[in-house]
Amino acid sequence: MERTLPPASVADEQTIVYPSPYKEFWKAFSHNKGAVGGLLFMLVIVTCALFAPWIAPYNPSEQYRDFLLTPPSWLEGGTTQFLLGTDELGRDLLSRLIHGARLSLLIGLASVVCSLIPGILLGLIAGFSPTRLGPFIMRLMDIMLALPSLLLAVAIVAILGPGLANTVIAIAIVSLPSYVRLTRAAVMGEITRDYVTASRLAGAGMLRLMFITVLPNCMAPLIVQATLSFSSAILDAAALGFLGLGVQPPTPEWGTMLASARDYIERAWWVVTLPGLTILLSVLAINLMGDGLRDALDPRLKVQS
Amino acid sequence: MSLLEIQNLNVRFGGNDAIPVVEGLDLTVDQGEVLAIVGESGSGKSVTMMAVMGLIDAPGHVTANRLAFAGQDLLKLKGRARRRLIGKDLSMVFQDPMTALNPSYTVGYQIEEVVKQHLGLRGRAARLRALELLERVEIPGAASRLSAYPHQLSGGMSQRVAIAMAIAAEPKLLIADEPTTALDVTIQAQIMELLLNLQKDEGMALILITHDLAVVAETAQRVCVMYAGQAVETGKVPNIFQAPKHPYTEALLAAIPEHSLGARLSTLPGIVPGRYDRPSGCLLSPRCPYAQPRCLERPALEPYRQDTVEGAVRCFFPRNLNPEKWPQVLPESQRPSHLPGETHGRA
Amino acid sequence: MFSFIARRLGLLIPTFFGVTLLTFSLIRLIPGDPVEVMMGERRVDPQMHAEALHRLGLDKPLYQQYFDYLGNLAHGNLGQSLVTRDNVWHEFTTLFPATMELALCAMIFATVLGLLAGVIAALKRGSLLDHGVMGISLTGFSMPIFWWGLILIMFFSVRLGWTPVSGRLDLLYDIEPKTGFMLIDTLLSDEEGAFVDALHHLILPSIVLGTIPLAVIARMTRSAMLEVLREDYVRTARAKGLSPARVVFVHALRNALIPVLTVLGLQVGSLLAGAVLTETIFSWPGVGKWLIDAIARRDYPVVQNGILLIATLVIIVNFVVDILYGLANPRIRHQR
Fold first, then answer.
1. Given a cut of 50, is residue B122 above it in pLDDT?
2. Which of A20, B175, B182, C151 sits most deeply, having the most CB atoms within 10 A of its CB?
3. Across residues B307-314, what is the average pLDDT?
4. With an 8 Å Cβ cutoff, are C240 and B86 in contact?
5. Scanning every residue of chain C, which has its alpha carbon at the shortest distance from the alpha carbon of B118?
6. Which residues, if any, are the signal sequence (chain A) (predicted)?
7. How far apart (Å, rounded) are the C-alpha atoms in residues C16 and C13?
8. Does A271 reach chain C within 8 Å, measured CB to CB?
9. Beta-carbon neighbour count of residue B81 at 10 Å?
């Protein structure tokens, strides 16, 4: 009964193939069922937004005076002509919701871009100048954080007046502090690392240090924050619309649609329910994606809520 | 009757088919006895004691033919009845005193909690008892320490507090799980001395989990050596040091610096098998210099008697016992090997 | 502890001045003629315009104007509403108890339920219950609460008729405002059934306003509990033979509360923002609705100093939370 050990070199000969970071990320992300569900729903919404004029059965502003407050097609009194029914002016609800996706995504995207870029810049400056500019910037951000975000947005719109562009500006300003704080915290964490010192010793200039050396290592929490602020941008925009301070009617914005639907709460539940449900589902989908992103990008962030 | 009786204790994390973390463990502790449990990290020492204390949570589960304390079957005691025992007659001191105390409560509160729970003392009486306990564990300025928070204490001080908590209800058995590992070397001896003094004064039994064999030699009456979740050898203290029976015990003793004066410190090659690479036979066989073909089977813990020396060993070919029956030591290439995957499953 | 409070105060004061700077500039950034904006008067003749400019101090240099503004604030002079001609401070203090009552009820609802849900989810980690609680709380977190309010009104008030649609109290009752808190005032009065009616009015708004904090607290409690339950001191507590309830609530939850408390403090700000929406939906006569109405009416003195008052409130609440945080966490309290 003689047996020999398997050749010891087996393990050494295996060349380890490292999966590409994208593949690895996707593996972790797709493991989270909620996140994938959120992604699929968002794909539907994005498709609706991109191809709204072709997908929507009607013009969102076209009023069908013979069909005021028609219930959805599956209810008594509904017609297949208007799948989700019509509103108080006889406009097709489905078409308005589809066109509303355009606005919500536009507001979300625009406000994220408008706050992400200055936020990162200010955060980098604050992180790289911890004695002079840094405290000043952070103090400013603290002041902005002292006001609840929606209230600050309301205040800004009160100055600028309601409208699409002002909604974007208000929301962008409101979400600025979290980017600045996050970037600064990440920069402060990275700046003492040896690789930064090495790069500095190698003669890298300030700009190179900021954008090429340090920034890429701070991206994970920023991406997660961008997702979360995208969803809160949609919520805040809808809230402003609901208060009559956002996008003005007859533009089919989800929050604005709700504001005018309030009066029909007793007669036409669909006018009230459907726009809100669309907001809820979109925001939920983005938040689910955000959770998935956070878990996939940075396990250390998991504990935070 | 022994104070603590353990027969065929198994602890698994997962279903019944999961690999046991503690496997077929037999152990007894008598009243007033000091028993040392020795083994490498991950050998199941702490898990065994957690099972005795009833601190194993799902998905972990504990089975045993007998797990009895002072004649009471611990596995049959549920909930409240078991808790009446734990912390009172049966208590435990943990490894890291800096994390074992709740940071939100004062030292006094945490000691009084035990006093209130198990002795039924209230108010001033409880406070006085807590003070008495702090003096018992030789904390200077005990009265002022009652209102201190754990983060204001040093490691040694915290461990004294933890010991005070453990002896608060005068236990019959104290389990000390590596009570000095996390402490500074200078403090270690003090804490060990304190524990032994308390053990003598209170007449309680003490289970000392450690991997410091020098401490064992000085303090314990009996030793249980564990390897990979199994007890591989039990025996009385001077004997086990003079004539270890299990190859693993022998290797442990050879690794004590004092035993190899001048010579190169002996080490055992390889590591303790993990959950997924347990050999099918004797668990030590892949690392054992004396392995024989028979070692592909799993040995049982067999009691032996040699003159006046009693003990038990889990080996087909025990050292220092019937050497005439010993087969020839095989060169490394001829030692039995397990099928690849069984031994070194790269899970 | 004293130095801890002093340090926090040192952070608070510059923040407060920053906010005054913000509200000071707010009114000057509004496009249009400042006199028109401030006085709400249109097409005044040039002489009166100049007089008004002088009277309002708008002809002075900006820094002087700012100091005047601060001086006015220091004297408690927050200006007059253009619409009601009432003192802004007086309006605020009259309306604030309503908001505070609503916010407190919402917070109690959110805290009690959120802690409970979070603790249960953590204890039953990985179970269906845990997934359910987490799913619901993420939904709550994503909730557009103005819509949520409408849905609840539609179902409970319109369809079932269980709760009133709006307001704080039925018109049947005539309650003399003593404390401004309807629950207390109705108890003090001898009107029968008024207290129950006030309570009925509070239920839906509290749920609506409490939904997001509830979700946040539940999520935070769960993750903090999971963290704490792994700690050695929880094992120590169990090894003492303490009851599971004592281990969970006295030893684990006490430590898990520390991060939850911080989140709770941060929620106060968004609670006031949420109050703006909730009060609008339920016609709740509080400062949120007051502010929105003022914006709609271009009542700028109210907008300006209403925002200042609310922001100051948030700053103070955050300060209190910081102090409480120090009390809950001995390690912070003893930091020097």
1. yes
2. B175
3. 84
4. yes
5. C241
6. none
7. 5
8. no
9. 11
Q: For residues B157 and C308, give the distance between their C-alpha atoms in angstroms, rounded to a whole number.
A: 51
- Least confident range from A159-163, A200-204, B203-207, B339-343: namely B339-343
Q: Could you tell me if the ipTM is greater than 0.85?
A: no
CB neighbour list of residue B219: distance below 8 Å, 6 or more residues apart: B34, B36, B192, B196, B208
C321-331 pLDDT tens trace = 778 777 777 76
Quick check: A262 contacting C, CB < 8 Å? yes
Of B99, B103, B113, which is closest to C240 when you measure between CB atoms?
A: B113
Domain of residue A162 covers: 28-301
Contact status of A9 with chain B (Cβ, < 8 Å): no
Q: Read out DSSP for B104-137?
A: TS-HHHHHHHHIIIII---HHHHHHHHHHHHHHT
Taken as a whole, chain C contains a residue count of 336
Strands annotated E in chain B: 4-13, 20-29, 34-38, 60-63, 66-69, 72-73, 90-93, 173-177, 205-210, 222-227, 230-236, 302-306, 309-313
Tell me whether residue A289 is in a domain.
yes
Chain A: residue whose CA lies nearest to C18: A143
**If you average pLDDT over every residue of chain A, what do you get?**
83
Give the start-to-end residue ranges of the domains of chain C. 1-75, 89-332
State the nearest Cα–Cα gap between B325 and chain A, in angstroms: 21
pLDDT at B217: 85
Among C233, C329, C331, the residue with its CB nearest the CB of B99 is: C233
CB–CB of B336 and A5 under 8 A? no
The DSSP-derived string for B59-81 is TEEEE-SEEEETTEETTT--HHH
Least-confidence region, from A122-136, A225-239, B292-306, C40-54: C40-54
Integer Cα distance of A168 and A143 in angstroms: 20
Instruction: Report which DSSP code applies to B278.
Output: -
Position B346 scores a pLDDT of 34
C151 vs A235, A244, A276: nearest CB: A276
Subunits with 3+ C-beta pairs closer than 8 A to C: A, B
Nearest-CB residue to C295 (from A140, A245, A258) = A245
Contact of B331 with chain A, judged by CB distance below 8 Å, is answered with no
Q: Does domain C89-332 have CATH number 3.40.1360.10?
A: no
Whole-angstrom distance, CA of residue A202 vs CA of residue A224: 32
Which one of B87, B100, B149 has the shortest CB-CB distance to C233? B100
Cα C287 to Cα C80, C209, C224: the distances in Å are 15, 14, 34
Angle at CA of residue C166, ends C165 and C167, nearest 5°: 150
What's the DSSP call for residue C80? Answer: B
Question: Is residue A11 situated within a structural domain?
Answer: no
Q: Which residue of chain B comes nearest to C231, CA vs CA? A: B99
Question: How many domains does chain A fold into?
Answer: 1
Q: Do C239 and B88 touch (CB under 8 A)?
A: no
Contact criterion met (CB < 8 Å) for C238 and B55: yes
